[in-house]
Amino acid sequence: MDGKIAIFVFVLIARLGSDQVNAQVCTHPYCRTGYTYDAATNFCYKYVGTPATYAAATQYCANDCSAIASIRFSQENDFIDKLILQSNTNVNKKTWIGFAVNTQAVQWQWTDQGPITYTNWYQNKPVTAGCINGVAPWGNGNGCVNFQPTGSGCDGGSNYWENFYSCATALPFVCKQTPICGSAGKSS
Predict the structure, then answer these.
(1) What is the widest separation between alpha-carbon atoms in the chain?
(2) Signal: is it a keyword of this entry (predicted)?
(3) What does the alpha-carbon distance between residue 70 and residue 174 come to, in Å, rounded to a whole number?
(4) pLDDT (0 to 100) of residue 48
(5) What domains can be seen in the chain, in order of their start residue?
(6) d(C-alpha 17, C-alpha 19), whole Å
(7) What are the angstrom distances between the C-alpha of 41 and each of 24, 56, 79, 134, 136?
(8) pLDDT at position 107, please?
């Protein structure tokens, strides 16, 4: 049984990383309980408000037959921004996404192994007092990326990605999975 689950998770992660938009054709796609469907990407997303380290968040998503969210284009970034804002009632809304440093290759990559087709790094433009300047170096244990949704006061109030926190910091996170193809009557 464990071997079958491992193969399923590997295939799921490989599929999540294969395209910007899920090419699976469904007449009536729907999501598992707790996930929200996005028609623009044809994927399901789940905000998990219980803070976890980056490794624990990645494992949680894998155990839930998903992957920690990768972001392939601006519309997907905006959908995740809205999902976080609707779901998170805390003052600090920073949330893990599936972008991290591969220490063996010494480069950024999506944890689902998909292509890097879009980034939204923090730039501190316009320069705002009290905001850090740009992306932190990842050599200090902060090689994991968090999403800061719209409204922080930094980067002109726009949403952005940063790697300011150590991967060992507990933050909420977003999982991403392919939808279920169903028959009429099912919805997200």
Answers:
(1) 55
(2) yes
(3) 9
(4) 96
(5) 2-182 (3.10.100.10)
(6) 6
(7) 10, 26, 9, 29, 30
(8) 83
**pTM of structure:** 0.81
Torsion, Cα of 161, 164, 166, 169 (10° steps): -70
Q: Say how far apart CA 12 and CA 143 lie, in whole Å.
A: 24
pLDDT higher than threshold 70 for residue 101: yes
In this structure, which amino acid lies at residue 7? I
d(CA 161, CA 56) in angstroms, rounded, equals 20
Least confident of 54-58, 78-82, 135-139: 135-139
Q: 19 to each of 43, 61, 83, 132, 151, how far by Cα in Å? A: 11, 19, 21, 33, 30
Phi, psi of 83 (to 5 degrees): -60, -45
Contact call for residues 14 and 62 (beta carbons, < 8 A): no
> In whole angstroms, what is the distance from residue 179 CA to residue 40 CA?
13
pLDDT higher than threshold 90 for residue 66: yes
Which range is least confidently modeled, 6-10, 40-44, 91-95? 6-10
